[in-house]
Specification:
There is one protein chain. Helices cover about 55% and strands about 15% of the residues. The chain has helices at about 5-10, 15-25, 35-45, 45-60, 80-90, and strands at about 35, 65-70, 70-75.
Length: about 100
C-alpha cells in the first residue's frame, strides 16, 4: 500500500499519527531510530498496539524498520515523507508515480 491514499489512511488513526510523530522527532536526535520499547515508553501505549501501528506505517511507506541483533529500530522513510509533502504542497498537480 504505497499509494498516497495509503499514506493518509495510515495517518488518519490518532494513535498511529502519534507513533509516527514520536519516530520523526527522535530521528533528529537518535540516528539509529527508536525501538518498539522506546516508542512504548514515549507514547504510553502497550507493545502489541505499537507493533500494530508500526506495521501499518511501514506498509504505507512512512517508516523503515531495521533489525539489529534482537532489536528493531524504526526511522522515518524519506520517500514516503517526501511523497506526502509533495502532495500537500500542490494536491492539484500531484501525480502518483
Amino acid at each position: 500500500m504505497r499509494a498516497i491514499t495509503g499514506v493518509f489512511k495510515a495517518l488518519s488513526n490518532p494513535n498511529r499519527l502519534t507513533v509516527f510523530q514520536v519516530i520523526c522527532k527522535a530521528a533528529r536526535r537518535v540516528k539509529k531510530g527508536l525501538t518498539i520499547e522506546q516508542i512504548c515508553r514515549e507514547t504510553g501505549m502497550k507493545q502489541p498496539a505499537v507493533s500494530h501501528h508500526v506495521a501499518h506505517l511501514e506498509r504505507a511507506g512512512l517508516i523503515a524498520r531495521t533489525k539489529s541483533r534482537w532489536w528493531v529500530h524504526c526511522t522515518p522513510a524519506r520517500e514516503g515523507v517526501e511523497r506526502a509533502a509533495k502532495f500537500c504542497a500542490d494536491p492539484a498537480a500531484y501525480r502518483e508515480e
